[in-house]
Amino acid sequence: MFIFEKCSYDELQKIRHKENLLLSGWALLEKEYIDETEKIYDEDGTMVALINYYFLNESKKRMMIALFEVFNPYRNRGLGKKIIAYFLKDYYGEVHLEPSGEESESFWKQCGFESGCYLDRRGK
Which residues, 6+ apart, have CB-to-CB distance to 44 below 8 Å? Predict the structure, then answer.
């Protein structure tokens, strides 16, 4: 189980420097889009990742995952796949994203996303 908690703009700035985040998108995130950024804690209460997402329509049936990053000490343990599965378990719509490279695209495919990084959960 994971706990998702809203992340403020100031918190994000501190986390960016402390965790030495790899994705450059975190530095480009503007204050007005921070509402869709969440800190992710594991069952022990340790912050292990961040996610930024938004909905592409008012009905919330189309979502874009803009940024997702597991912190360095927790990578390559299967944690990212578990977090995404948990994050999407109760969502029944389309999910879109833009992978940051080949390694990222491979990760998303392992999470069930198709080529072009699209996942249709409407029939789930």
Answer: none
pLDDT digits (tens, 9 = 90+) for 53-109: 998 888 888 899 989 999 999 999 999 999 999 999 988 888 988 877 778 888 888
Q: Where are the domains of the chain?
A: 3-120
The domain covering 3-120 belongs, at the CATH homologous superfamily level, to Gcn5-related N-acetyltransferase (GNAT) (3.40.630.30)
pLDDT band at 20 (very low <50, low <70, confident <90, very high): confident
